[in-house]
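Final paragraph of the annual report: two paired records, presented back to back.
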Amino acid sequence: MSINWKVRLRHRQFWLGLTGALGTFAVAVAGFSGHGDRAMDVSDAVNTMAASVLTVLALLGVVIDPTTEGAEDSDQAMTYEEPKPKD
């Protein structure tokens, strides 16, 4: 998979999305592992598992470039040294 990580890591929206998704995942894992005031029932476990799956999908959305087909960056995007400015 070809992703121009150097440019992605310089992009503020990438970090905002990644921070939110990882924070949500951490809360879900803490809840699923029983860290909390009460025991987890089945509906709590299902909700936590669903939140974990949605977090993984959110992480993919943060990483994948929606302007290209598939999960790779375009050949043009691979040549960028910094995020492309708006025209």
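The closing record of the year follows.
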Amino acid sequence: MTTTGGRRTPRIEIGQGSDLPLVDLSTNSRIPVLMELVDSLSRATAPQQVLDAVIVAMRKAYGPRCYMTLSTRDLPAGQYRISRWLTLDGVEHVRARDQTGGNDKPALTGGILGRIVSDPAPKLCQGISIKGDPVLGDDLAPFGSMIAVPLIEEGKTVGWTVLLHEDPHGLGVADLEQLILRGNLAGTAMNSVLIANRLREATDWIQHEVDHIASIQRALLPQSLPEIPGLRVASWFDAYDRAGGDYFDLIPLTVGLDGRHLERNMPWGIMIADAAGHGPAAAVIVAMMHAVLHAREPHVSRPADMLRHLNERLFSRRLGSEFVTVFYATYDPASRVLRYANAGHNPPLLRKTDGTVHPLDRAGGLPLGVTDVVEGDEAVVQLAEGETLLLYTDGISEAAGPSGEQFGIERLEAVLGATAGDPERIVESISASVRRHESGQKIRDDQTMLALQVQQD
């Protein structure tokens, strides 16, 4: 037995599968109104919508009353703005136009409202007669009781909610207690909506900047693949996000490996790189790589020298924990000799005409940006007609399927070995195999391929 309001109520044991002894609430008219308020607050996208929803709900639940909201935000002590004034008949005497509580309204001083805002304590007035107010005149003369509650934000009073009733005792302590909670909950909701809007604006601005960075990064990649004598070239690029950290380039070298200036049959520099991570930070490093590569001294042409040059420039910029893997090679169209050096990048794969695949792994070293000096070696490979060289980033080999299993080097070699034809067909075949492996999963890293096939002169 429990006792409620002087009545003894028997306990009802609730077992599994038994019905709940629900109290009939159908005669309570305020609960649906309050639930409607909760729903409206959850959908509000502007602070004024919060205030409108609260006022409408309070009028429905507790009858017509006069509602006023005052703003003291960023005003000297004793000053206020009337940001909202709803009369007994529901007419908008003052309506806020902006989201911050009526900054378009004039700042006022004095009168009954000035006395309210001068002291931060909540107020209850009964048996009042407000006539000849220096600010409001006789506008509040019909009302006999009033409560006023400060709105607190981060420990500071930023406004007030004022409620008036015609009956001299129509408002009491219980009404004041409820308004303290309702008013400040509404204020918190308004502030949350305002913060959410500002966060959305900031996010939109950030996304706009990221899109701009991405467009710059894409502009750094070759807009069209160059015509290299005796080579057919194809590329494929897909960024994890709008901006990525993968980079490739093909540049003509006007100075030969022996230091002589060339006019014909000049060699080409071939690079693929992968900045650690992805997104804007990686894209910025890519931009640095591009700038250093294209601003190099003409005598910097041998692969090992190029990697040392790049590392010196990147390391001097103090990238912190960031680093870049780079494969760089020079190709001589006249001799079909490829000379390469590798700074921590995936070794490219060479597809022979018989379909066998061999990694170019005879040269390697640390990624760039890790130490102040890179001591890399070089290797040389003689290419033959019909052979295809595939350069790729780890976004290809480490592409994950639904179970987390990576695409892997073995699969990549198998697809490359089984795909005959021009380089365009090869990159299309590999990208299709990677997509099938991912099974619709969002890619987890930037993905880049560059295929070069030796053609008949």
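The CA atoms of residues 68 and 350 lie 78 Å apart. This concludes the annual technical report; the extension proposal builds directly on these records.
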